[in-house]
Amino acid sequence: MKILSLEFENLNSLKGRWKLDFTKSPFAENGLFAITGPTGAGKTTILDAMCLALFHRTPRLKSIAKGTNELMTRGTGECFAEIEFEVKGKTYRSNFHHKRARGKHYGALQTPTCELADAGSDEVLETQLTKKIKRVETVTGLDFSRFTKSIMLSQGEFAAFLNANANDRAELLEELTGTEVYSLISERVYDHFKSSEESLNHLKAKAEGVSLLTEEQIQELITDHDRLEAEQAVLAQKLVEWNAHLSWWKDVTKADLAIVNGEQDLKHAQDNLSENQSSLDRLAKSEPAEKLRPLYKDVQRSDQDVKVTQANLESSTKRLAERDAEKSAASDKLKTQSALVEQIKQEQQEQEKIIEQVRPLDNQISVLKDKQATAEKNVKALNQQEVEQRHKHIVLSQAIASVQHQEKIHAQYLETHQADKQLEKYLGQWQFKVDQVRALETQHTELLSSVQGANKALETQQTLVQTSRELKLTQDKTLAERVAVENDAKLKWDTLQQQNSERALNESKDLLEYWSRHTNTLVDINRGYLQATQRIAVKEAELSNHIHRSDKLTQEREVLVERYQKNKTSLERLIRLIEQEGELAKYRAALQPGMDCPLCGSANHAIEQSQDLTDLISQKEREVQALAVIEKEGTEHRQQLDSIVPIINGIKDELKRTQADVEQAKLNWANTLNKLQQVYVNFVSQGGLLDVKLPSIETLGDSETVSFFTESCEQQLNEVIHQLRAVIDAKNVYLDAEKQRTTASIMANKAQANLELSEQRLTDLTTKTQAQVDQAEKCAQSKTLQWTELKESIAETSIEAPELEHIDAWFAQKKEASDLWQATKLQYDDLDKQLISKRAELTALDDKLESLTNETANANLEVESLTKELASITESRKQLFGDNDVQSTTQAMKQKMSDAVTNLEVSQTEFNGCEREHLKEQTKHASYTEELAAKQQVQVEMKQLWDQALASSPFATDADFESSLLDEALTAQLRSLKKTLDEAIVSAQARLNSTKANRSELQDHEKAATWSTTPQSEVEQATVEYQNKRQSHASQIGAISANLETDRQNRSNQQDLFKLIEAQQLEFDDISRLNSLIGSRNGDKFRKFAQGLTLENLVYLANKQLQRLHGRYELQRKADDGLELQVLDTWQGDVMRDTKTLSGGESFLVSLALALALSDLVSHKTSIDSLFLDEGFGTLDSDTLDIALNALDNLNASGKMIGVISHVEALKERVPVQLKVTKHSGLGVSEMESQYKVTA
User: Fold this and answer.
1) Secondary structure of 496-548 in the HEC alphabet?
2) pTM of the predicted structure, to 2 decimals
3) pLDDT tens digits, 536-547
4) Which of 76, 599, 694, 893 has its CA 20 to 30 A from that of 368?
């Protein structure tokens, strides 16, 4: 696997988008490069971006999901990481993207997105988070753990394997190489061995406890079974007859009760009718008044119209007078505003003449004032600059004197403490040596503590061995008790099975549950049938009422049509008369005294006898109004008829649908009963028997029969469930007892295994304790040797070495002295630079002060000249226009003119509005006058019609009519009451007739005469007796069948059982041999063997790397100490050294070799062509650093691309290609060089 490029955005302190292309310059020409920068700048973040793009996590953050993302840069709305890599010649692209809502830093985190694609074809391979990680592992052959151990060696884990003890090294080997599977295999083998052993013991015990029936016992059981079967058939026939007899008695009782209830319902309906008869009489008496209600409303409406029109006319008269006064006032105001506008125009013309002379003077004054202000500002600025520069001159002179004094003090200190200069070189090395001595001292203390703990563990383990022996005895006793309990439970279950088998009870339960599920269907069908029959009766009554009303409206409309035709004929006659009278009026007007009439030739006419044209017009208007009234009534009748027709059609349609519902209910009833009957027939054919009778087809509409059937099903189902539960409970008790016996057997086996394990651990602890004592003695010797070497090293520098207990204070003192000398030297150099800079600055200030003095004098002269010229022009302007402002004066005059014109326009608008309102009110007044005359005429005519209608009615006066007329809401209420009462009587009578017919059918039954002689109580008693006899026979038959079947199965199973025991013995022998080789309870037997092989391979690979790094050392595994390592020093006569005695540089080289070997080991078949080391190299001296860098050059030469994270200066010098990360102070943000920044 080779990393080709990396692109990321907003990760930790690296804000913004960055891209590193390792296939381009400078990385392409130099496979070895360094990632440099101060601590906390974000160097490791580059490696975090690789892990994030591939596995959505980092070594330092285990989870990055929707609810949490600590990797995203603070104050940003998204983060992103994408990596391109090559595996076996094929290029892939993998990325991870996480955003906040709306891309804002304060938005909620959204669900992350990701993608794995083929970079060559851009084909997307996976986009789901979990599946994408698995796909990456498949493509690369590396999971997250292997990736961080083979390609990216994380910070802080470089020497973890080398410095680990044996137990920690075993865990690391499991984690790094996946050898935990061998532990699982060892445990599984052990568990399989124990399971196989238990199964074999169980089969052997089972073979010893089986008993069989004799031939005499079998023959006797068969004879009893045949006899009981014959008796059962006779009992079944008798029970069917008694059930039919009992059902007839129940139907008769139910019919008698229904007749009594029906008669009571009918009487109740009739009583309700009698109680409400007075209200119904009021409704009948109000019918004549209801016919006159429309005409009465028209009369009231015409009276109201006259009153409203009179009020409108009076109001209009008052408003007309008000409009006259408003119009006059508006006319006077218009004249006044027009004169004021002319006056202001004259004043404006005079003002303009003066302003034309003032404007040039104002312009000159403005220019001179600007020049004057600029000159004064310049003078002020020059004076301020001069003051500031003189102050700076004084301050700078004082600063130079202060710097000279400080420089002298620092020089004296450096000269006096010249010896502290060399401390920086040696303190780090000495501190490292002290750390090694203390580590050995700590290790020695820990080893002594471990020895004490081991002794205590020995005592504890001896106690555990004794406890395990006691526990083994207890578990054996418990097992014997559980076997006895299991046998008792099995006997009880077998007894219940013989009485009522679980299969027969389940069949009865299934049938009753099936019936119970369909009882709701029967209830719903019966309810729907009853509701449909009731709706039919109600809708038929409604249909009759609506048809009657429709006929009545049709007759009334025909009368209105006849009246309309008569009035229309009369109107046409009047129109012809009016037209004729108009023609005659023309000729009459042309007559002259003494001339003959052109129509008749007569010279004398009685003109006063001619018909008055005004009377004809009045008659015509009355006829028109009468026609309108008739037409309105006809329209209302037509609308009522139109509204009734769809109601009648709707009722008819609903009647059809309801009839269909009745027929469908009958069909559904029959189908459901057929289903229930068929299931019952199947049940009976299989030997079942139930005390529940199905309803018949004729009982549709009989709610009591359906309810009785429902209750019977529920009662019988509860009884069957109770019996079934008893059988199941006994079975469960037996199964629990069997389970407890099995558990006791397992616990007994575990107790035996625990005893063996405790004894083995006691032996192991004894051996381990002696090994720890030996190791403690070796550690003490190593610590003494290291401390002696350190004191000799310090003495070589002519410095007296302190005792070990005072070494920290000594180091602190020397470190403080070294830091103070270095800091003083830096301050001295800085003061020298400051002194040179400040002297140059003082010379420049002297030159600038001289220039400022000359500029100030010239500026003062310019200010005096401008002041004199401005005073002269200002005086001329004041004499002409005073202190008035031209702009404001002109604006004021324009505003005055604008206000006057606006007021004139407002006055004109007001006058026009008053004139329009006056004209509008005149029109309204005339209209109201005409309208009042017309409505008064209608009022008179309506009064005449009302008087005629009242005269032809049974009412003498208006008061009689009003007293007979009921409220419309009360009328509707009484009509609804009448309808409800009539329907109740019809419904009650129908139900009573149906019930009596049903009772007659029962009396006509062919066996009614015979059945009626036996009381119902005796029939019920006989039915129960036969049911009990059948159940008793069924229980006996079931018990005999169960005994015969059990005996048959036992005879068959006896042969099969020996075959199973033989097969199980073969399996146990195989797994027993495998368990002796690799099986163990905690999985350590096979795991230690596998870890030993893995460690041998790792040492081999590490030694190959050590040959490249440094030929002096070679790793070897201790032959007598499990997973412990030691180092062979070839430069000191092949002496063996403990890994804890290695110096810092030596530990680094060996750790690097182990890290590279682990990289090769965990990468399996994947070629690793990129390697990133996150290690500071800070503990290495110059020689060891050269060795490490040479080793990295050798790795680079082998074709690997290597990136090293460090801040060591020597490494920076040796590695020409550097990726620098710069940290911005105080901002918490870092950046790389600009060439790696991605711009939008």
Assistant:
1) HHHHCCHHHHHHHHHHHHHHHHHHHHHHHHHHHHHHHHHHHHHHHHHHHHHHH
2) 0.35
3) 877 777 778 778
4) 893
